[in-house]
Structures are given as C-alpha cells and as structure tokens.
Amino acid sequence: MPRWLSEAEQQTWQSYILMRQRLDAVLAAGLGEHGLSMADYELLVPLSAAPGGCLRAKELAARVCWDKSRLSKQLTRMAARGLVDRVPAEDDGRGIVVSLTEAGRAVLREAAPEHVELVRDVFVDRMTDAESAAIRSLAGKVVAASEARSDSAG
Q1: Residue limits of the HTH marR-type domain (predicted)?
Q2: Helices (H) then strands (E): counts for the chain
Q3: Residue 108 burial by CB count (10 A; 0-12/13-18/19+): exposed, middle or buried?
Q4: Over the stretch 71-89, which tens digit does the pLDDT of each residue have?
C-alpha cells in the first residue's frame, strides 16, 4: 500500500511543481527573445563547455538526461537552423559527434548574459545563503536517489 503524502508534504510537492513550471516559463520566454528554446539552450551549454565544442551524441544525451529519440529530433531541428553539426565519429563509425557551430556559439553568447540575469533575478537573488545551501543539499540527495533508481531499472 502506498504511503500517501501528508497535507504538508502535498503542499511542498505542489509548491515545487508550480515553482518549476513558472521558472521554466519565464526562462523560456527570455530565451525565446533570442530565437532559442529551453531545449536548444540545454544542449548548447554543455557543447560550449566541452573541449572543441564537441561531444559524442551519447555523452550529450547522458549529460542532459534525454533519450536517444528526443536528442535526435532536437539536434535535427538545431542543425537545420545552423546551431550544431553532426558527423560520424572517426573512431568507430557508428557513433555521432555533435559540434557547436559558430552560429550556435554566437547566439549562445548573445543569449547567455540576459539568461543569467534572469536566473539571478527570479531565483538566485530570492534566497539567503542558508537557503541556497539547503537547495544544493536537497538537489544532491534527489539526484543521487534518482540515479540509483535509474541504475537499478536499467
């Protein structure tokens, strides 16, 4: 039998969902002003941080917790807009290497400062140092529990 959420737990869970939805909406709107979606940004950031702006598709999918199908469809859209390139991996022929194009790097450079200011305005600057530490701690616990569940399922 499930352990149902108490009233306080239900309020906490619903508060988290509402916060995530509202935060995603405001961040998406900000990125939209630069012609980017949240999905675009989620992929451009790890590519920009990778050596040479390149990652194997499998590694990129793992970093953003996406399945192969979702990644492939999003990369197709991004490649059509000139933000990324996909080429077969030289070392095995089966893998794909995704690289950030100059156009992708340019739009990221343009959007990132405003995005960071928005994150700061609606999230970071709204909490004390203690609240920030609590969120980092909680996030670590949730990520670890989620990864353990994923590892045991697959």
Answers
A1: 1-144
A2: 6, 3
A3: buried
A4: 999 999 999 999 999 999 8
Give the domain 14-115 fold. Answer: Arc Repressor Mutant, subunit A (1.10.10)
CB distance 72 to 66 below 8 Å: no
The pTM assigned to this predicted structure is 0.89
CA distance 2 to 51: 46
* Token reading at 72: 């492939």
Q: Where are the domains of the chain?
A: 14-115, 123-154
